Amino acid sequence: MKRFLVAIDGPAGAGKSTVARQVAERLGLTYVDTGAMYRALAWKALRDGVDMEDEEAVAHLAESITFTLEPNGIRVNGIPLKDEIRTPQVSELASAVATMPKVRKILVNKQQEIAASQSVVMDGRDIGTHVLPNADVKIFLTASIDERARRRYKELTAKGIPADLEALQEQIRRRDENDRNRAYAPLRQAEDAILVDTTNQSVQEVIEVILQHCRNKLGGEE
Ligand code: CDP
Ligand code: CDP
């Protein structure tokens, strides 16, 4: 069977990983969380004491790492990473290393290699525009900043982690700005992407909308 590629992009907290994971499961495709790769790289650089302002050093580290993407997480050189890559510090650092063209080229290569041999649902910021420009279905997920910050707040407090809603709004605003304004491969909606505003939609509703677009495409190719 021909590979089927689904690209899901959008800003932080839009619901990309939550819906992409479940869409992949429902369609029997591999889920690829590219944000986890930028996060895992930032985490490893922090742990190894790599200077995060030194693009060459971070790119060298990115090249030498083995990333293993699994349905519920990522491994770096075999080590499974979970909550340690979701801290505010790692989020900020991931967003900073993601502005470096040399680093992006290396991670994009690895992402394209994964999609070269199998059908995937891949989520990130530049999947529809850059990583998989020929994806069969491209979705651009958004939601208001207030709603995205509320979602993060709920996630953290549900885990018993104290959170400050205003600080979360500020952090999301800063990361949005970084992601949208970087010179190389910024976050933007691909011309042929379908815009889905999830502000007032449940996770299940969003999943159904995306599945319907995928089925239409699959049906059209039979
Ligand atoms: O989950 P959240 O949306 O907060 O972030 P993420 O998807 O885990 O991505 C973490 C950071 O990596 C983002 O702030 C982006 O700066 C960067 N990223 C990127 O530049 N390109 C991608 N394809 C995926 C993530
Ligand atoms: O990957 P991204 O940063 O875009 O978002 P996420 O990590 O999937 O987090 C989104 C959070 O908002 C999760 O806790 C979801 O349960 C919740 N949520 C959602 O994803 N989509 C909705 N339509 C409503 C809530």
From TrEMBL:
Its EC number is 2.7.4.25. It is found in: Cytoplasm. CDD domains: CMPK. Gene3D superfamilies: P-loop containing nucleotide triphosphate hydrolases. It is an enzyme of class 2 (transferase). The gene is cmk. The keyword Transcription does not apply. PANTHER family: CYTIDYLATE KINASE, CYTIDYLATE KINASE/PANTOATE-BETA-ALANINE LIGASE. Residues 6-215 form the Cytidylate kinase domain. GO terms for cellular component: cytosol. This is Cytidylate kinase.
